[in-house]
């Protein structure tokens, strides 16, 4: 109807301009439109009124652009914001100690980076780290890889720049299929051991040390042998796994401990890469090498059931005879001696005499041990004792001083620790 009315109105004006005398036509047309006068009046008012102001298109476009920018920014920065707002637990890579060094200073200085990496390594997932450069990442990873519970062969990382800068880290797992399950098994085994272990530092450390000597064999394997799990749960490992296992058991049992890496001198003077342990007993630092106290098959056959403690709780000086740390300045020059195995049990000789030797081994003899051993307090006493017992054949006087007759006896001498072992035939 609107379009028709518009056409009718336009014809009326054109007709009047062309033929002003044709009133009948006008009247006819006027009669036809008489019913629509109110519509014409409205149209005329609309035509005479000022045009409406133009729409403010610029404001709407700006608002739409702002919303789009906010959406894109949310999509771009959401992972970063989520990572920053997500609470992360504090990572304790090692027990605090007043005498042992802090071997994880970078993790302590970058707690969020350490926590993200630690969580990813425990859960065996990839990691995304924000607000961290490559140097900090590598420093934190070097410290985390010393954690006996984190089992990683290698890792790779990619640095992403730009507004949403971050680093992605992927890992090559030691146990790719069931690492978390093995970690739980290790914890259950350790907790079972600790439930039966003595409470005090020295007997607790000795109990765990002896358990390793009884249950672990030094076996390089095609499968991974450098983990605490391999030593504790599978019973086969090399020095890295055995040292990790002892540190894991000690710290889970409340005794601060660290793995020390460096080189050791073998019997033929060859320097090899090696790992051993530093631990805090009764407020002092001692050094341990459970790997070197393991019995090989030949020794086990000759001395069944014997447990060696040559390398249990040594001073820094005695350990340094055949062990050199990768960073010697990091490790305390500890001279504590009270919790050394031989000193603690009274298996020592301060002079080269038959009486001193007999006193050092008497309690072992009374206990019926197959091996009677003692440590000489100085190299001079050790040399004098060797001369007395073996060169001058006074060994039999030691057995007579113990009140017994022994038909024969073998012996061993451990030169670098000044230890003498007597192996009598009862």
Description:
By secondary structure, the chain is α+β, with helices and mostly antiparallel strands. The protein has helices spanning 2-18, 23-33, 37-48, 57-85, 105-109, 111-123, 134-144, 179-196, 201-215, 228-232, 239-252, 290-293, 297-302, 316-319, 341-345, 354-366, 379-391, 395-401; strands spanning 127-130, 152-160, 166-173, 217-218, 236-237, 257-265, 271-281, 284-288, 323-325, 348-349, 372-376, 408-414, 419-425. Strand 4 (217-218), helix 10 (228-232) and strand 5 form a beta-alpha-beta unit. It starts with a helix and ends with a strand.
Features:
426 residues, alpha+beta, four-stranded mixed beta sheet, 13 strands, 47% helix, elongated, disordered N terminus
Quick structural overview:
The chain is α+β, with helices and mostly antiparallel strands and 426 residues long.
- Overall geometry comes to elongated
Q: How is the main sheet built?
A: 4 strands, antiparallel
Judged by helices, strands and strand pairing, the structural class is alpha+beta
Kindly report how far apart the N and C termini lie: 131 Å
Uncertain stretches of 5 or more adjacent residues: 1-33
SSE layout:
Blueprint: H1 2-18, H2 23-33, H3 37-48, H4 57-85, H5 105-109, H6 111-123, E1 127-130, H7 134-144, E2 152-160, E3 166-173, H8 179-196, H9 201-215, E4 217-218, H10 228-232, E5 236-237, H11 239-252, E6 257-265, E7 271-281, E8 284-288, H12 290-293, H13 297-302, H14 316-319, E9 323-325, H15 341-345, E10 348-349, H16 354-366, E11 372-376, H17 379-391, H18 395-401, E12 408-414, E13 419-425
Parallel strand pairs: 4-5, 10-11
Antiparallel strand pairs: 1-3, 2-3, 6-7, 6-9, 7-8, 11-13, 12-13
Helix pairs in contact: 1-2, 6-7, 9-11, 16-18
């Amino acid at each position: 109807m609107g379009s028709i009315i518009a056409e009718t109105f336009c014809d009326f004006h054109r007709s009047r301009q062309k033929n002003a005398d044709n009133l009948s036509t006008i009247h006819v047309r006027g009669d036809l439109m008489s019913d629509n006068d109110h519509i014409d009046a409205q149209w005329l008012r609309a035509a005479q009124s000022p045009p409406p102001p133009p729409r403010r298109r610029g404001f709407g476009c700006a608002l739409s652009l702002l919303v789009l920018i906010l959406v894109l920014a949310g999509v771009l920065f959401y992972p970063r914001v989520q990572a920053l707002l997500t609470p992360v637990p504090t990572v304790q890579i090692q027990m605090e100690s007043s005498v042992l060094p802090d071997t994880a200073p970078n993790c302590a200085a970058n707690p969020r980076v350490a926590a993200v990496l630690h969580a990813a390594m425990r859960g065996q997932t990839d990691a995304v780290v924000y607000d961290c450069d490559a140097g900090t990442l590598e420093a934190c990873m070097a410290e985390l890889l010393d954690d006996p519970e984190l089992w990683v062969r290698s890792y790779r990382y990619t640095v992403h720049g730009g507004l949403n800068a971050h680093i992605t880290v992927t890992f090559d797992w030691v146990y790719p299929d069931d690492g978390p399950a093995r970690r739980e098994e290790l914890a259950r085994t350790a907790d079972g051991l600790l439930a039966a272990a003595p409470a005090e530092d020295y007997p607790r450390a000795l109990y765990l040390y002896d358990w390793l000597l009884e249950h672990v064999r030094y076996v390089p394997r095609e499968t991974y042998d450098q983990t605490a799990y391999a030593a504790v749960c599978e019973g086969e490992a090399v020095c890295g796994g055995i040292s990790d296992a002892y540190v894991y058991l000690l710290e889970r049992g409340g005794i601060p401990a660290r793995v020390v890496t460096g080189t050791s001198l073998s019997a033929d003077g060859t320097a090899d890469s090696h790992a051993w342990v530093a631990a805090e007993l009764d407020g002092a630092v001692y050094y341990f090498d459970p790997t070197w106290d393991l019995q090989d098959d030949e020794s086990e056959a000759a001395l069944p059931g014997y447990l060696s403690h040559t390398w249990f709780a040594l001073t820094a000086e005695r350990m340094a005879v055949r062990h050199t740390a990768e960073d010697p300045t990091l490790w305390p020059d500890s001279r504590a001696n009270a919790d050394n195995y031989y000193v603690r049990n009274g298996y020592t000789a301060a002079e080269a005499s038959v009486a001193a030797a007999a006193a050092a081994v008497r309690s072992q003899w009374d206990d019926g041990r197959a091996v009677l051993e003692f440590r000489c307090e100085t190299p001079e006493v050790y040399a004098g004792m060797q001369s007395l017992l073996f060169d001058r054949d006074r060994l039999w006087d030691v057995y007579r001083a113990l009140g017994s007759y022994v038909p024969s006896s073998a012996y061993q001498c451990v030169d670098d620790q000044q230890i003498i072992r007597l192996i009598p035939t009862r």
